[in-house]
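Annotated sample (chain length 369).
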Amino acid sequence: MNEPRQTVLQACGLSIGYPRHGKTPSRVISSGIEIELHRGEMVCLLGPNGVGKSTFLRTMAAMQRSLAGKVLFDGADIHAISPKDLAKRLSVVLTERVNVGLLSVYAMVSLGRYPYTDWVGRLTDRDHEAVRRAIAAVGAEDLVHRPISELSDGERQKVMVARALAQEPSVMILDEITAFLDLPRRVEIMRLLRRLAHESGYAILLSSHDLELAIRCADRIWLMPKGADDGTAARILSGAPEDLVLDGAFESVFAGEGIVFDRDAGHFKLHESAIGAAVLSGEGTIASWTARALERLGYRVQRDGQGVLQVDILEAGGRTVWVARRDGRMSRHHSIGELVSSIRSDSRPLASVRKQLSTIQLSATAEQC
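Output written by the structure step:
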């Protein structure tokens, strides 16, 4: 029998947005939000650009007032908790880079102890122990004496997470923590946060634009759609990544963003009009990457049937060979790059003809008008 999950942060009938100022009416981004964050889980907040993810996170962290409804922290109204007590229970990491001059890594992480120190910021033995523990948790022991200004973006973000951990919170809210990082550093940070949630029991909520990485790493995903054209606020969708994929939620939320979600492959593809069907014969990793290359060229890849292009992946003399057949012609290639170059060369005359036909059709339509 599964134990009930402990809710630590909860939105109850929450409406978020911007309040009325003078004659400017209030603008509701999302309303009627009923959602819970549990201890020991990592939740990723996803949505198109400009949808209001940062506004939602600020509201959940009590940095911004809601338009209606409440945010509860351990069952109490979050705005009824004193700022000092809230800082001991909730930490926030933002995207913005702060100029800290020559401050060392240890000094930066020590700033996370501000809810516990006196008015001059004096650190006790317990404070120093919490700082060392936070630094060790993110694996930054070798950075302790280095100035923040000399760190790479990935190292800097690890230190910001350590500073947040030094507050000894039960909830961490992070806004675009992996922004500006290369792929290996993004993976490293996401793995770190997932480990902190699962092994140390933190409740972690972060926003991200890295959709595929969020799908792979998050325990749950909160999907934030755009509102309707008439100003009606959209409802935030919540669920396990796999359930949201199967329900078609990703296609719905990111519709019109120039991408389409492939449910079978579990990733996004550029949304382009297909040139036609390409029939691909082959198995394994090589076939998967060949299919990607053909899709990038604008083909709809299928495994059987008829198509404007046929590609067979064969083994000849211990080497992989790609055999392409199109318009009664056959060509052999020894790499995907060669295959792509050949197909593009053959496609240019066809594209030119299509462009000419399109111009003729437009002219004919204009004359009829």
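Annotation: The chain has eleven helices and 17 strands.
Annotation: Residues 261 and 267 are 6 Å apart (CA to CA).
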